[in-house]
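re the bet — no i am not wrong, look at it urself. input seq straight from the record:
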Amino acid sequence: MEGIVLLAREAGFPLAGSARARPLEEDERSLRERLQGGFHGTMTFLENRPGRRCRPEEALSGARSVIVLGVPYFPGPFPGSGGPSGRVSRFAWGVDYHEAIGRRLDTLVGRLTEVFGNEASFRPYVDTGPVLEKAWAREAGLGGIGKNTLLIAPGVGSYVFLAVVLTDLELRSGTSPFLPSPLSASWDPCGGCTLCLDACPTGALVAPRALDARRCISYLTIEHRGEIDPALAGRMGDWAFGCDICQEVCPHNAAGTIADEPEFRPSAGPGPHLSLDAVEGLSEGAFRKNFGGTSLARAGRRRIARNLEIVRKNIAGESVNG
């Protein structure tokens, strides 16, 4: 595993670990319970063979190991906006992480193929396939799942992009030297803390480690199509794309160490704020030109316009029904 950790770091992944590919039975039970409760909202793709997400063998025949990779991305505190605007979640300040992390994955898989030859199989994912990245990061010893449902890496916090590579190689479990240990998969980063549950303005964290996406500001502003329930829209504050509240209050993020990742800094993308008229009058083509290569492009012009109108009304103290 040490050689793979070195290759991972060379490819741009400070965090790396591996776990034995096995069925994650407890995670599958939890996933099915959330789906039955409708917590996934309109993300109906999660209903497609949910067991596959917890069984690596169904995604890659002969899978024996799961390589888990992490990139800390904290770009800094929110600066002043200089006027009325909508806030953008930190993960989207720079370039689209799917593309940036995907390029690093391509580099790593290329190097792994050079080392192990074509007889070894590698299947990479970055938030795009039937794998539970956070659960596998826990299994690989990169961190523990917090009550806000996010992976918390010791000494790093929760501002971490994750990627996974399934392989038919049998690897010894281990983690990168960036972390103080390999952690037990049962490590609880939270103890009695409930700051994230208490801080969520929409009550999306219905219980520790249980998120009802239908109430989550990140889901509502990014994934949800159509109108947003006025009762929830009025609690969105000035969030125009995503939300960081449950991370901002987490003690594991208190250090605020800025990651050495230029691709994810404000200068590489839309930054922390959108003016209220950022997409006003833009054609679809102009929107793609302005926001192409960023996470905002995935939501599209109409959703961003909808979100900014809600922000405008919230700032003005108007009823979102108005």
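see?? Confidence is low (pLDDT under 50) at residues 177-181. told u. also The chain has twelve helices and twelve strands. so pay up
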